Amino acid sequence: MDIDGAEVALRSLGFFAQRRDWSMGRTVFVTLPSMMSKTNGVSGARHAVFLRDALGGWWAVWSPDPFETVYRRFDDAVSYIRGNLEQHQMIDDLCDRGFHARRHPGPGDWAIFVSLPGLRFDDGEGIHGWHKSLVLRKAPEAWLVHAERGLFSKDADEVPFSSFEAAVEFMRQKLAME
């Protein structure tokens, strides 16, 4: 498949996809339709990736991360792109509901650290963080919340939820308890 075929395939899969020929070469700009906005005739997206055909595989290049991930199969690149953009959509949704939310730093890990605004601290010397946070991630058949403070605690239990709404309500209640 060439870059033109990739654009058509991505659109048929429900993405907003548009070819670009620029300093990165021939790429396809990819995002979710819900992330597109238009102001004064100028279109943009809150989060997007660029897909380019590269020797030996498809490269998913997403902003603002400074690295490329190579996939030999187009379907694998699409799976990565979907997971990445859906994670950014979840972060936006959580922020819209009054949470602080950010990606877990591990590449390929779709976990999200979640806290409430009043639970942040700043020591005045540039050190800041969350006093109490939970971790949310999407599994194939459930939303999982780490009920303990840290992602890497050996005692941490993941609590499964059938919906994003139920997981959000649990996190709000759990984080409000001090």
Mean pLDDT: 82
Strand content: 35-45%
Low-confidence segments, given as residue ranges, are: none
Total domain count: 2
DSSP helix count? 3
Question: Which H/E pattern describes the elements?
Answer: HEEEEEEEHEEEEEEEH
Helix content: 25-40%
- Order of strands, main sheet, comes to 1-2-5-6-7
User: What is the CA–CA distance across the termini?
Assistant: 55 Å
For the sheet with most strands, the description reads: 5 strands, antiparallel
From the alpha carbons, calculate the radius of gyration and give it in angstroms: 18 Å
Word description of this protein:
It is a single chain. Helix content is 26%, strand content 37%. By secondary structure, the chain is of the alpha+beta class. The mean pLDDT is 82. A hairpin with a 2-residue loop joins strand 5 (49-54) and strand 6. The longest helix is centred in the middle third of the chain and has 23 residues, at 74-96. The protein is elongated. The chain has 3 helices and 14 strands.
Could you write a compact summary of the structure shown?
By secondary structure, the protein is of the alpha+beta class.
